[in-house]
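Input structure tokens:
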């Protein structure tokens, strides 16, 4: 098995893997490319160099919750949207409020969400968020009835281009966003 013997070749291997992967690649995934013959620090340095190499090109190398990926620079999104003109799903106020509560207060039960929102949670709201893979059941609260605890997923963070929940905007900022009415 051939292993790259210089920095340029190593970056080309990383670039090829990242450009062809359908999902973000973790550091562990990327280390597999080099059969365990690379230190994490070296890999991070190569990724930083690769990111710099692409600064003047059409894609950015970004780190999200589940790893690294290439994505089109924001200035091209309007054009790329024309390739797939299907409309992005619109989410109801109830779905967005429920998602916000889960994201900022996780882990939470359906009862917690109902107490905060002041209304019953429609099962379709939870199902819609689970089908999108934005939330998942992470356990049960140790109280009578053992209600399910919900939390956001790495896929949710990836879709929002976030590395962690700490990168969410402060809740006060979110509370000022004008939401569409149901």
């Amino acid at each position: 098995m051939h292993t790259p013997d210089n920095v340029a070749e190593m970056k080309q291997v990383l670039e090829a893997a990242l450009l062809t992967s359908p999902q973000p690649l973790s550091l562990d995934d990327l280390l597999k490319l080099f059969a365990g013959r690379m230190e994490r620090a070296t890999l991070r340095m190569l990724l930083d160099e690769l990111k710099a190499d692409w600064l003047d090109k059409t894609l950015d190398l970004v780190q999200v919750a589940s790893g690294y990926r290439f994505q089109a620079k924001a200035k091209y999104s309007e054009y790329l949207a024309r390739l797939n003109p299907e409309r992005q799903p619109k989410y109801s106020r109830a779905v967005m409020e429920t998602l916000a509560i889960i994201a900022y207060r996780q882990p939470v039960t359906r009862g917690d969400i109902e107490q905060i929102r002041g209304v019953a949670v429609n099962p379709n709201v939870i199902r819609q968020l689970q089908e999108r893979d934005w939330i998942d059941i992470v356990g049960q609260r140790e109280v009578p009835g053992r209600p399910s605890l919900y939390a956001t997923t790495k896929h949710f963070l990836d879709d929002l281009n976030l590395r962690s929940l700490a990168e969410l905007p402060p809740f006060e900022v979110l509370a000022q966003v004008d939401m569409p009415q149901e």
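The chain has nine helices and four strands. The first helix runs from residue 7 to 20.
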